[in-house]
Amino acid sequence: MELVLSPEDEAFRQEVRAFLKEKLPPDLANQSATGLRLGKDDHVRWQKILYEKGWVAANWPVEYGGTGWTAMQKHIFEEECAAAGAPPLIPFGLLMVAPVIMAFGNQAQKDRYLPRILRSDDWWCQGYSEPGSGSDLASLRTKAVRDGDHYVVNGQKTWTTLAQHADMMFTLVRTSDTGKRQEGISFLLIDMRSPGVTVQPITTMDGSQEINSVFLDDVRVPVENRIGEEGKGWTYAKYLLGHERTGIAGTGRSKAQLKRLKEIARTEMSGGRPLIEDPDFAQRIAQLELDLLSLESLVLRVLYAEKAGKGPGPEASFLKIKGTEVQQMLTELMMEAAGPYAMPFQPETFRDPQWNEEPAGPDYAPPLASVYFNWRKASIYGGSNEIQRNIIAKAVLGL
Amino acid sequence: MSFAFTEDQQLLAESADRFLADKYDFDARKAIRRGEDGWSREMWAAFAELGWLALPLPEEHGGLGGSTVDVAVLMERFGRHLVVEPFVATVVLGAEAIVRAGSDVQKAAILPAVAEGGMLLAFGVGEPQARFDLHRVATAARRDGGGWKLAGHKAVVLHADAADRLILSARTSGAEDDRDGITLFLVDPKADGVTLRPYPTVDGLRGAEVLLDGVSVGEADIVGGVGAGLPVIEAVIDRAMVLLSAESVGAMAETVRLTTEYLKTRVQFGQPLSSFQVLQHRLVEMLQAKEFAHALCYRAAGAMDTTDGVERARAAAGIKAEAGRAGKMIGQEAIQLHGGMGMTDEMAIGHYFKRMTMIDVQFGNAAHHLRRFATLS
Ligand SMILES: Cc1cc2nc3c(=O)[nH]c(=O)nc-3n(C[C@H](O)[C@H](O)[C@H](O)COP(=O)(O)OP(=O)(O)OC[C@H]3O[C@@H](n4cnc5c(N)ncnc54)[C@H](O)[C@@H]3O)c2cc1C
Hints:
The structure holds two protein chains of two kinds.
Chain A: H1 7-23, H2 26-34, H3 40-53, H4 71-83, H5 91-104, H6 107-118, E1 124-127, E2 143-147, E3 150-158, E4 168-174, E5 185-191, E6 197-202, E7 211-222, E8 226-227, H7 233-248, H8 251-267, E9 269-270, E10 273-274, H9 279-307, H10 316-337, H11 348-351, H12 366-374, H13 385-396
Parallel strand pairs in A: 1-4
Antiparallel strand pairs in A: 2-3, 3-7, 4-5, 5-8, 6-7, 9-10
Helix pairs in contact in A: 1-4, 4-8, 5-6, 5-7, 7-10, 8-9, 8-10, 9-10, 10-12, 10-13
Chain B: H1 7-23, H2 26-34, H3 41-49, H4 68-81, H5 87-101, H6 104-116, E1 121-124, E2 140-144, E3 147-158, E4 165-171, E5 182-187, E6 194-200, E7 206-217, E8 222-223, H7 229-265, E9 267-268, E10 271-272, H8 277-306, H9 309-338, H10 348-361, H11 366-375
Parallel strand pairs in B: 1-4
Antiparallel strand pairs in B: 2-3, 3-7, 4-5, 5-8, 6-7, 9-10
Helix pairs in contact in B: 1-4, 4-7, 5-6, 5-7, 7-8, 7-9, 7-10, 8-9, 9-10, 9-11
The structure holds flavin-adenine dinucleotide (FAD).
Flavin-adenine dinucleotide (FAD) sits between chains A (125-129, 134-135, 159-161, 211, 377, 380-381, 384, 386-387, 390) and B (266, 268-269, 273, 276, 278-279, 336-337, 339-340, 343).
């Protein structure tokens, strides 16, 4: 069930392929094959290459340096990048804060931040969640008190992905305690080098270091760093969440992972035959492939509706749920495929680029259990899958 | 017998609960794992003192003659506390192979020492290409004068790095997937030609690849008869699968308890998460899966001592499949219901999830044993 492309789209696909072949550094492309974790420099290096080509901001309007691609072109681009093993784009700047700045920021903010995001000069992180405010984000308590032309910010953000690399954080803060909770929230951009910002890493159960607590202790933030109006932060955040959910489906990456799963299942032996010939395992791969095809179909439908001028509606929640379930099942089946070699914990083999000793078991095996554990996060973040169901129940079924 | 616990079993359960609650809470376990061996020799000595290492061993060799159900009761407690000591490798696997097939000399040399805590064993029957098949053995044993020479690769041998003696399968005759011609050998890990490549496992235990390159072993190192290894291996592994399932059931119980507690205290939207009916039902599903796995597990444990052959294999495959399925569901749900907290290394819940996941992988996962259960009759 390959997508049938128009001649123009097919030509575009070939153009993207040729570009990736020429410009994607082999050491970066290798990582998806070996499961090696990329560092900050690797991501920035790749994003700058895309920037040079004018392709880093597929979802931005042309006037800001975007591509002006059609929905299908964006989809093809994502798929080809994933297939070639290109590093995924770090979403916080390009995909998350940029649309908010474009829609609600003033001219000075657009001029100041958008070009830097485009060139990957700033690394952004998302400071929404707090220890007491996860699913119930509107209960957030980080306080911003006006003091002349500054806000003084106090509080704690948590689960902040890759804050250890970040230059800037976009954040929701409480500027008022009266009235509706949502109406006391403002959208602030905080320079991570400001005095009073402390980043403390949180180790996840697989041993990764990708999330952090961010402590804000009398941090002085210029009022000019507020997006839009005071007290309107919640509206802007909701606008952004819609964007987050279509991106989170990640079908391009899942297609590439499906291919990898099949390769592993062809290599692994079960009962003296390749695992991929095992009827049970083959059926589970087949079911997963069907889930992925239906997901891709719905993603395209939503993208086309967006093109016709409709923003992603509550249906985007379906994409988040199914997209993350597919990602998780991929990691589960890959771990299962490795059999007993899922057990050894050899993080140096996939976290240390200098490591060149042989792992116990096949080369692809060491990261598989860790990746499986790590991807349990996908049904929790970006609005948990339970919260997505609540949204669908309310906004689609009208309950 | 396997549907109601005896007074002795209840006493064992209570004393194990008490000891582990006191000495083996999550922080203690963390400290133990940071130690040099990745587990605690002091704790091992205490286990010996408590009679736990002697529990299943025969009375004539310094043991207590306990049943498989007795050991399951203990393993369930180990599961609740995520015990990392080499109990399965030494007592459940290694010593059991000696009990079943060892010579009198081997029994006398090994079993009392195991019971006292002075000898550690590891049991290596897997190979890189074999996946979960116990009969797929490429490691070769060739006649060499009065003894044998071993060459090959035993995969993911739990706690091999600490073992005083390895018990390994090798092929003395036949083709790689013949059921006949497999022999068990006692191997000194320090012998010439033995290379260990140790590593931690993702669930906090220890394991190693065992590479054999012309390792000399004598006639007296054969466990059981030449070419008669497979039935012994299968009996040992069947019973070990039931006991690992008991460990998993203990981990499931603790996972459900911790998740319930968490939802009762975590407040979002102005109420404890436990007040959301949709989450209550998920806790109930988890609890229910654990209850059924628990019941089936003790039935299978009983069957280990009263049946043999296909009946025994069916019981073992059945509970391994069931515990694998239940453990996965309970573990995944527990992480989900904990939200971000569930993802952290700092919380116990992720460690239970990882242990249950790896118990499923060990000796064949749920899919493998469900198929075996269907074909065995
Ligand atoms: C790896 C990772 C990276 C993250 N990165 C970021 C980041 O960069 N920036 C950021 O701001 N945040 C980030 N998050 C935080 C994420 O958005 C929150 O974890 C998420 O919103 C859930 O909140 P919580 O963890 O507090 O769980 P809780 O809200 O406490 O929820 C616990 C469980 O209860 C369920 N639940 C809660 N309310 C309801 C309800 N009303 N009905 C039914 N079920 C309910 C949830 O679905 C979940 O299963 C990240 C999280 C993870 C795990």
